[in-house]
Amino acid sequence: MIDVPLSALEVAMVQTGTRAVETLRDTAAFAQGLERLGYHRIWYAEHHHSPAIGAFPPVVLTAHSAASTSVIRLGSGGVLAPNHAPLTLAEQFGTLAALHPDRIDLGIGRGPGTFDEATARALRRGAGPTTDAEYHDDVAAILSFLVDEVALGPLPEPWLLSSSTAGAALAAALGLPIAMAHHIRPGNTQAALERYRAEFTPSRWCEEPRVLVCVETVCAETEEEAAWRVGPMNVVKAGLLKGMSEIPFPTPEKAATHPFTAQERQALAGFRAQQAVGTPEAVVQRLAQLAGETGADELMLTTPVYDLGDRIRSFELIKKYSEAMTAP
Q: How many CB atoms lie within 10 A of CB 254?
């Protein structure tokens, strides 16, 4: 039923009761598990100063997982351009691409990766938020350095991450494939993709529009179990709705006792309806629907659940059900 490649976004949730180093150790096991299942690629997101998400540089996680796998594509989703010198990013990912030919992606995003203003300013060495023009120049410089300065051999595959029409316009102008953050701002997906396709200019990186859509996806044998696994992320999202960024990632047991307000429950239900949560049949149907509605060339699943085994099991159920539905 799903006729596009399936991939994964790893945001490295740090579970309450564990240490960040334990989350870090799970990285290779997760990559190896998804490689066995036949997933196309894994991307690592850049985050800072969060009790729920590890501050692990995507370039380091990419290198670590690439050394312990053999065929799955790996990269950033994304590394955040305002926090880094363009030449540094080009050197880092150019080196990885030379070490692991045809396996490395460079997904570039704009946000600071933190809700804390002091942390954002520290990352930018005291500078304020980047402007549209500065971001455009940074992305263009990264691409230029990859070709003209680094040139170690095989280049990483560049992507532009977007959750808005502005990001889509930049991806179109630079001729880059686009990764839509449907898991963050689902209401922007269709308008952004319409603009991207309408304004796309071919480049050395991409001859025609190419779309990846990232979807929050939690699959379990039953609806009740899927809802149980979604509980911890519901608590984090409810905190963000209140403007609270210092929310730990709780256990499912703790999440089950969280006192959500009626307004929070309504907002969470509205968000979940645009993602993919439930049994294998329901999830695969929803993913196929999203692929059709968006014209996606690839779907990337992000599965923020508490346990590594449950996370891998979610990907396994989806893959097995999807393959069973397409078998002759």
A: 16
Helix then strand then coil, in percent of the chain rounded to 5, is 50, 15, 35
Note if the bond before 75 is cis, omega within 30 degrees.
no
Q: What is the pLDDT of residues 150-199, one digit of tens each?
A: 667 889 999 999 999 999 999 999 999 999 999 999 999 999 999 999 99
Asked if 219 contacts 283 with a C-beta cutoff of 8 angstroms, the reply is yes
What six digits make up the tokens of 254? 């703790």
User: String of b and e for 58-96 (b: at least 16 CB within 10 Å)?
Assistant: bbebbbbbbeebeebbbbbbbbbbbbbebeebbbbbbbb
The domains of the chain, with CATH numbers, are: 6-221+279-325 (3.20.20.30)
Site of tokens 């701002």: 185
Q: Which residue has the tokens 């905190």?
A: 239
Question: Tell me: the pLDDT tens digits for 258-283?
Answer: 999 999 999 999 999 999 999 999 99
pTM score: 0.94
